[in-house]
Amino acid sequence: MLAAGVAPTASTFNILVKLYAWRTAEFHHAYDEIHAMRGHGVAPDVGTFSTLVTGLCRAGRLDEAWGVLDWMMQEGCLPMVHTYTPILHGYCRQGRIEEARKLMDFMEGAGCPPNIITYNVLIKALCDDGRFDEVKEVLAEIKTKGPKPSAVTYNTYMDALSKAGMAEKAVELFEDMRCEGLKPTGFTLSIALNCFCVHSKFSEVIRLLERSTELNWCAAVVAYNTVMSRLCDMERWLAILELLADMIKKGIIPNTRTFNILIQSLCIRGKLSIAINLVFNHGIPANVVTYNTLIHWSYYHGRASDADSMFEYMKKVANVAPDEVTYTIMVDGLCRQGKFDEATDCFKESLKDRLSKDLLTPLINRLGRKERIRNIVAVFREIERQGFVRNHMIFEDTVRSFCTVGFRQHTKIFNLEFLLEGILGPGKEVYPAHNGR
Length: 437
Hints:
mainly alpha; 24 helices; PPR_rpt; Pentatricopeptide repeat-containing protein; repeat; TPR-like_helical_dom_sf; transit peptide
């Protein structure tokens, strides 16, 4: 740019300052760029210093940021709201809320009153600290001093109340927000929907979804999924079907999670055959969660052959990779059928991803109860062959399982010795030497 004879402006240098102060945290280069501006006949402006202050605050260097404020005032450049707000944000990130509030008072005295963005930063910090009474005070202060609350202000407060178990208060804020003339955002309505669901106020939920057009809100699939998931927990599968029909009527395309909620609700209601028919004959998009649900409920209803077939179908036809949940369901189901060799093989197959203690422990329990000694030894040999480290927690859980199923009885002690020798490997001592103690 310089070689082409194009003179840089303050904006040119501000981009370089932002690069060093925000992206790479090389502050010495940021300072160099500011000092170099004079050599090109360009004076640093409020944007230059504010950019440096923001970068320093993000790095936690608040004292240095105050030094930059002194420097910019010496240069005859007065700080603005967006210069002070990053310092306030830095205080809040460090939990120094009282200092943040003092800074806001300082801004008032300096003739640079906080704007709604500054207040939103403070409200977020107070909410994170559970200081909801102080949030009320700040909201009252906002209304008396002039800056109008934004949707972000209410969203922050409502979300915090909802997460703190105060859903009813959050819903009250939803109405306050509308009285202020603010349009709820998608996030606002998701919070409200969740609050209604927590208190099982499904009539309010349906009414809110139906009013989406009136509220100028395009209810997305995520909002419907939130409600349908809660209805599934309440075993209200007819209401789920009604919501699904309402979605389709409004032109909202269901996604895989929507159908997984539907499949789960049908299975809970004992409509497994309908669920299977929807997946295999009507082209409903299925992922690993879908197949896990169908396999689990097939075993639950005693349809083991269907479960086994679905496991093979998902791997070989649908090309959906089983996850830890899939293998856990399969291993448990095969053991319940007495197919211990198949369960062992299934566990070995799961090792291509990782060694799961949550899968190994129940398998050892099942095999131990049926005294399938050789299967247990085969499991540990495969673990070793795959190169996994067998730590003390695995041995501790395994020995505890053996003792739980009665291997410590004198009639079965040989089994325990054989197992430990097989697990530890040939040539290893089962009992350590006492060394005369």
